[in-house]
Specification:
The complex is a heterodimer of chains A (203) and B (257).
Chain A: E1 2-5, H1 13-21, E2 26-29, H2 32-37, E3 40-43, H3 49-58, H4 62-71, E4 74-77, H5 79-82, E5 87-88, E6 94-95, E7 103-106, E8 117-122, E9 124-125, E10 137-142, E11 144-146, E12 152-158, E13 161-169, E14 172-175, H6 183-195
Parallel strand pairs in A: 1-2, 1-3, 3-4, 4-14, 5-7
Antiparallel strand pairs in A: 5-6, 7-11, 8-10, 9-12, 12-13, 13-14
Chain B: E1 5-13, E2 16-21, E3 24-30, H1 32-41, E4 47-51, H2 54-57, H3 63-72, E5 77-80, H4 86-94, E6 99-102, H5 104-108, H6 111-120, E7 125-133, E8 141-145, E9 150-155, H7 156-166, E10 170-174, H8 187-196, E11 201-204, H9 210-218, E12 224-227, H10 229-232, H11 238-247
The chains are: A alpha/beta (203), B alpha/beta (257).
Chain lengths: 203, 257
Amino acid sequence: MIAIVDYKAGNLTSVKLAFEALDCPALITSSSDAIRAAERVVFPGVGAAKSAMENLRSMGLTEVVREVAETKPFLGICLGMQILFEHSEEDGGVDLLGVLRGKVIRFPDVPGCKVPEIGWNEIAANDPRGFVRTHDEYYFVHSYYAEVTPCTVATAGYAGVDFSAAVRRGDLFACQFHPEKSGKTGLRLLRSFINEPSSEGRP
Amino acid sequence: MLKKRVIPCLDVRQGRVTKGVRFKNNIDLGDPVEMAVCYSDNGADELVFYDITASAERRPIDIGMVAAVARAIRIPFAVGGGIASLEDMERVILAGAEKISVNSLAVRNPQIIAEGAAAFGRQCVVLGMDPVKSARCPSGYEVTTRGFREFTGMDAVEWAKRAAGLGVGEIVVNSVDADGTRTGFELEITRKIADAVGVPVVASGGAGCPEHLRDAFLEGRADAAIVAGILHTGDYTIPQIKSVLDAAGIPVRLRWD
């Protein structure tokens, strides 16, 4: 079973529907036990980092998310990727989960580049497990971006900046874009996530 | 590089997609879910649905249709028409739509933009506006509401700036003068608003051929363009439109299989 972490940070329906389109049942849950019991965990999110962190804390989910991000096949999406880093410039500065080293920064104001970045952007990828490929196009919606770090496995460019489109550390994969809204390309990525052997299944 | 988006628009009336000219004389075109799947499979970057009579009839939006569309397609879509409250917005989002388009409601109650942005994130809140040429506004364009039934006296550019300040993530500029005429987008007001706000602007109303979209991107400085009639009647396909845009050097998404 896949657990989709519900911490009142945006639209989980389309994530669940995308997994259902792949005949893979997914449970939307804010129960730590259910998250720990799941084979794989999806950590979505849209909206603001500060309120998302407050929700995680008030719902008692900070520790379990940190834990499963290290121990299970884990997919962070959009704000669910950003929150894994250490710090965001958003809302005057927010400390994040710190699962990954690095910070989250606002796009600079560049004439002709509207913020938020909304739409399909092309990535350059170097993912050892092949979840994403160079020239893949995915749907992005964001005003802030994660800087490129040693964990970056895909980059995209906007407003004169190269940013982390996807990051990986072991079984943790997280993307700035929305695979659940990126047509067949996105479904292929979700299929890769579902098909990846979980740590329990490994020798 | 970020691609310019081509967005088919489906006007829905009593569960069926319809198309009119300047908001009138609507004809039946088909089932919204079937059409959504067809456009999604054929290169649409996003979709938008308007429940076109909900606002005038003062009834809520058709949530069943929103849920059915969300189940059927894997690209983003926006929904507008008949949104009357924050609760309505939440129901649309929970049904699986990415964005809510507010138009008449935002004119009546601009604070709903800030409330929606705070509750769901600004990327969820789209301002739809129906400007019409008018000598009594400084920009030359006045905002109308309720499907061109009411004039507001509000200047279109000033309203766009105010809405962006309140927190909309995107602005759809739907020219009443051009709507359904196939004579091209109203480039002047599109460009004026695109230059005045920091959020993406979507050109809407008047697409008659692929070159009109090219003009909306190059001259209107739009980030996305809405097409309806020329797709619904089969006169053009999305790949045909995108190949014209690509030839003009406009970045578009060309692969979706």
